Amino acid sequence: MPAMSDQSGKAPYRQLAESLQRFIEEGTLRPGGKLPSVRLMAKRHGLSPRTVVKSYGLLEDLGKVEGRSRSGFYVRPHLAPQSPLPKMARPMARPAYVGVSDLAADVMEHSTDLGSVSLGWGSPDGNLFPNRRIARMLSSIIRDEPGWLARASLNWGYEPLAREIARRYVLDGVKISHAELIITSGCTEALNLSIRVVAKPGDTVAVETPAAFALLQTLQSLGVRVLEIPMCPTQGVQLPNFRAALLSHKIAAVFTMPNFQNPLGCTLSDEMKGRFYDLLREFDLPAVEDDVYGELFCGDRRPKPLKAWDVDGRVLLCSSFSKTLAPGLRVGWCAPGRYLEPVRRLKMANTMGTPLVLQKLVCDFLRMGGYDHHLRGLRRAYHSHVLQFAEQIRRDFPAGTAVSRPQGGYILWIQFPKQVDSVRLYHEALKRHISFAPGILFSSKLRYSNCIRINASAPLTAQVQSAISALGHLASAQLPRTTGRALLRKFPALAR
Asked: CB under 8 Å to 191, separation ≥6 — which residues?
């Protein structure tokens, strides 16, 4: 903690508050970081605990810090001067097959390189989860009831877990029965099964764009064509564009992420979700909904999934615990509505069942309590990390770089000036042991060549700051020479 500056004539509590406020605004004390305890701060500055409490209270009144029960005071996440928003894509003239698997495989391979700074894969930082508690619970299950390891996974789901998942939806105002839930091996299997039920090879599926490349890989493997629907970076899918696409093309099904869309992070309002569902009914279309980030909201309440408006079973809701509890367990689910029986048959043919011991583990964790407390901490961490990453990017990336403002989750979508080639940037970054996801992976038509996606779930360590700074330097070096001379003055290291 930096020393408090001398400000003669001011009350000690105000001097301390103003010093801390300056450190917060300069970035020395980062959003989400914990302030020293009252006792430690008092001892360090020779003040009474009462004075420190009064100082922290002043900072809380100013919105600079927040007090958390039985935990202490933390720097409140704040919005720094913001970068411009990414621009919307143009509507797609005709459907296309997906074909970027080689680059996607390369990104996935480098995401597991422990010697690199991996910013490209969508899996969250594993250090944010209650790993030790989960490990103890799993050990206890195996020790006390070893028969769980011998139970065949010929199932559509462990009923107690299905009841817990359904209960959480009902509390959020979504009427889902445990009997209509199928437990899957992560959200990826849930999406795969759902798409296979509503579309066959050669069909056209409407997809929001930019779209998560894992989804596009799934669509490629199933042999369906993709019609991309442009997304507003703050409001989500634009319904006039959506309606025009439905009128112009024969669409078999729609894929949507109404809550915290990956990679833009935008969310449809409740009004727009209702109108979106009305269009599905008008054109008699099924919708596969990915709600995997639904619990990771930044605001006061969880946004309802599109499934909340589903009155005739045409929405196949998919999600998992991979972003919120335990990525390695791969426990997800699907509520397929009217498609329940076809999805069940495919699940049986596909994997026969999801390991029962893992389902019981997740169920026991939910029943023992603490999951919502864990989620509150996780949301604060993600929100804080996203703001820190966005501020670092604003500082280090070239002028004119646009950055998304996600309303939940932990993904950032970055649009460089048009001269920057993100694939070239990717290969140059790999030489420096840095990886990310180039923008062309997020479109079937290889669009977004000047965009990248970054995973901001992890803390902004010195190593990550250095990686972001290096990316900024490499991207700046691709800009025209007239701009480059000014950048050399700002970043002398580029001249070496």
From this structure: 215, 218, 255, 288, 290, 318
Before 263, cis peptide (omega within 30)? Answer: yes
What DSSP letter does each residue of 432-462 carry, written as one string?
A: TTEE-EEGGGG-TT---TTEEEEE--S---H
CA distance 422 to 175: 43
Alpha-carbon torsion, ordered 287, 290, 294, 296, to 10 deg: -160
- Complete edge-to-edge strand list for the sheet that includes strand 437-438: 402-403, 411-415, 451-455, 437-438
Q: What is the identity of the amino acid at 325? A: L
Ranges for all domains in the chain classified under CATH 3.90.1150.10: 375-495
40/59 Cα distance (integer angstroms) = 17
Question: What does pTM read for this prediction?
Answer: 0.84
Write out the residue limits of the CATH 1.10.10.10 domain(s) in the chain.
Answer: 12-75
Domain covering 12-75, topology: Arc Repressor Mutant, subunit A (1.10.10)
| 370 burial type by CB count under 10 A (0-12 exposed, 13-18 middle, 19+ buried) | exposed
For 222-276, write each residue's pLDDT tens digit: 899 999 999 999 999 989 989 999 999 999 999 999 999 999 999 999 999 999 9
Residue 263 near residue 210, CB atoms below 8 Å: yes
Q: What is the amino acid identity at position 108?
A: M
d(CA 18, CA 316): 53
Q: Which long-range contacts (CB under 8 A, 24 or more apart) does 141-144 make?
A: 141/357, 141/360, 141/361, 141/364, 142/357
Instruction: Calculate the alpha carbon distances from 116 to 171, 427, 470 in Å.
Output: 42, 13, 13
* Calpha distance 299→379 (Å, rounded): 9
Instruction: State both tokens at 144.
Output: 């006390």
CATH for 101-109+126-368 is: 3.40.640.10
286: which residues sit within 8 A by CB, 6+ positions away? 198, 253, 254, 280, 314, 315, 316, 339
pLDDT digits (tens, 9 = 90+) for 349-374: 888 888 889 999 999 999 998 899 99
State in words which class domain 375-495 has. alpha beta
Q: What mean pLDDT is predicted for residues 413-419?
A: 96
- Choose among 362, 308, 309, 380: nearest CA to 128: 380
